[in-house]
Amino acid sequence: MKFLADGTHLAIIAAKFSCGAPRAGAEKGPEAIMQTGVFQEIATKANLAISFDMLAAEPAPADQTEAKEKEEERLGIGLGLKRPREVSAAVQRVSSAVYRHARRGRFVLTVGGDHSIGAGTVTGTAKALRDRFAGQQQQRQQELGVLWIDAHADINTPETSRSGRFHGMPVAFASGLAPSPQRGVFDWLEPSHRINLRRFVYIGLRDVDEAEKELIARHQVKAFTMEDVNRLGIDKIMDAALDHLGPDTPIHASYDIDSLDPEWAPSTGFPVPAGLSLEEGVRVARRLHESGNLIALDLVEINPDIAPSLLDLTVNAGCRLIKTALGVE
Ligand SMILES: [Mn+2]
User: Fold this and answer.
1) DSSP run (H or E) holding 146
2) What residue ranges of the chain have pLDDT lower than 70?
3) Fewest CB within a 10 Å sphere: which of 42, 47, 133, 141?
4) Is residue 3 part of a domain?
5) What is the tally of structural domains in the chain?
6) Within a domain: 87
7) Best CA proximity match to 85, nearest among 19, 172, 155
8) Residue 17 CB neighbour total at 10 angstroms
């Protein structure tokens, strides 16, 4: 993979957070993946050294009671987000962990967690690329391309969101569409963290809010819905997606397990029917690997509590995506 300076090291970040989602459980996703032994398998087959960063929620400060949270919400403090400080702190920790490894040119694999953490992962790699390639001739390397594989667009702003839950908003925050931060709430986000929506592609969309459709149209974001996938086939979609990002662009893929059809990935918070087949999902991962441009991957939204009896099926699907994207299957 040509944009990595240290191809011998795989940095794995377990982002055990669910504070951006309405129900808990996604924080147990990383453990479920880890228990399969998939990371050891990858390390052996690809001859990589692996490191683990385990990030988990910290106990809320004593003064941050639920009553206080409700009162702040009523007063519109915290950008109108649910659990604004907790979410901001979690996303910041993910962003700086990803940055630390990506800055050294390592491949970073982040396992979630709800998709809120995507606002941390892509901002971490975006900033790392800018710092790594600062002052160099090849401008393209400095700007990250993002592939967001998801049933949902996750591009609501606090104004358009009906739930106030951050896991529907990471794209808006990472790209600078969201409002100015407040003290203690996303005030760590700098312009150098920002991703460019012109170098961003969705695949697998099929449950998108009206306000999100408007944002996607207004900012001319490239979006391939399931309708497009069914009409053109996944390979043509990947041709177009990689073409849009450009041949000399480092790519960060943020893979939401709910992009897959619930037949293959039922144990997730918001399953939506008529998604990618497992083979289509694996094809996306393979094309990413073959591009040679992949520098980071997220796998998010496996929630063991949703369908415990179907967890193995979901986890196995996730493991296949990871292994394929890393070229060991
Ligand atoms: Mn998502």
Assistant:
1) strand 145-149
2) 1, 138
3) 47
4) no
5) 1
6) yes
7) 19
8) 29
| Residues, beta carbon < 5 Å, ion ligand 1 | 115, 150, 154, 256
Q: How far is the CA of 21 from the centre of ligand 1 (A)?
A: 10
3-state secondary structure of 149: strand
Cα 62 to ligand 1 centroid, rounded to whole Å: 31
Distance 300 CA to ligand 1 centre (A): 7
Q: CA angle at residue 179 from 178 to 182, to 5 degrees? A: 125
Of 149, 180, 91, the C-alpha closest to 318 is: 149
In a domain, 1, yes or no: no
Distance 47 CA to ligand 1 centre (A): 31
* Gap between the Cα atoms of 229 and 248, Å rounded: 25
Candidates 280, 282, 314; CA nearest to 300 is 314
**pLDDT score recorded for residue 1:** 67
**What type of residue sits at position 135?**
G
Q: In Å, what is the CA distance from 46 to each residue of 50, 68, 189, 285, 312?
A: 11, 50, 35, 16, 24
* Domain membership flag for residue 93: yes
Q: Work out the number of other CB atoms within 10 angstroms of the CB of residue 133.
A: 17
Structure confidence by residue, pLDDT tens digits, 3-23? 899 889 999 999 999 999 999
Q: What is the CATH number of the domain that holds 130?
A: 3.40.800.10
Range of the domain at 151: 9-325
Distance (angstroms) between ligand 1 centre and the Cα of 167 equals 7
Cα separation, 152 vs 301, in Å, equals: 12
d(C-alpha 244, C-alpha 61), whole Å: 45
Q: How far is the CA of 136 from the centre of ligand 1 (A)?
A: 34
